[in-house]
Structure formats: structure tokens, C-alpha cells
Amino acid sequence: MKVADILRIKGDDVTTVPSWTSMAEAVQLLSGPPAIGALVVSDDGRGRLDGIVSERDVVRRLAADGPSLLERTVGDVMVHLPESCTPEDTLAEVMATMTRSRHRHLPVVVGGRIRGLISIGDVVRQRLAEMTTETGVLRDIYLASR
């Protein structure tokens, strides 16, 4: 299974903001509706990946900066040039990247442009579906051989 398969199921909509967006506005976008876990940062307006800011980034900076965080910009908080993946990456590769980098969201990039965003939830959901199918096949093979 590949990242492209996840994007076919969930779609390729990505909420992007420029780095000069206020954190107050970013928090509003994250809290929804719909609630989302991360905003991809693209300053050129055409999908170049400049960074990402997640709920986790907001919480950690809120603990450090307090309420003044809302007066800052996304560029002050975002992860610059974050880990990313391509539609051709496998779920195993994506899981390894997420584990190594300790990020729960990965922008999907093709030719330097954002083509989607996947989360650890998307990967786990897809992996569980695969495991359910594999279990069914193995059960059927076992029952047929009796």
C-alpha cells in the first residue's frame, strides 16, 4: 500500500496558510470546523512547502509563551522545511519517517509542490484495513484446508 492509495480514499485537500498568518487565525483554522491537526505553510500561494504548524506545536509554544503566542505569526512557530513524503512512498516508509521525526503529519510533495497531507491516523486506519483483509484471507485458507 502506498501514500497515493490513502490520498485516493481521503482526498487531497490541504489547508495552507502563509507564514505571516497570525497564530490567532491559525488556532481558529485548526479548531475548525472541521477540526484539523496541522496547517501546511506555503508562502508562494502556489503550493511550495515552506513549513508546517501542528496542534502539538501550538500547545508547546503556548506553554512557553503564554497568551502572547496569539500575537505571533505562524512563521515564528512552524517547523521549517518539515519531513515530507511522496505518493509513491509505502506505508512502511511513512511509518518509519513519522517515528523517526516524531511528527504526526507529513505533507505529500510532488515536484516541490504540496499534493496532500497524511496523518498517523490515516496510516493506522489503512494498515488496520490491510490487516483485516490479510486475517480474512488466512482464515479462509485455513478453513478450506480442513
UniProtKB/TrEMBL annotation:
The keyword RNA-binding does not apply. Gene3D superfamilies: CBS-domain. SUPFAM superfamilies: CBS-domain pair. Residues 8-68, 78-133 form the CBS domain. It comes from the Bacteria. Keywords: CBS domain. This is CBS domain protein.
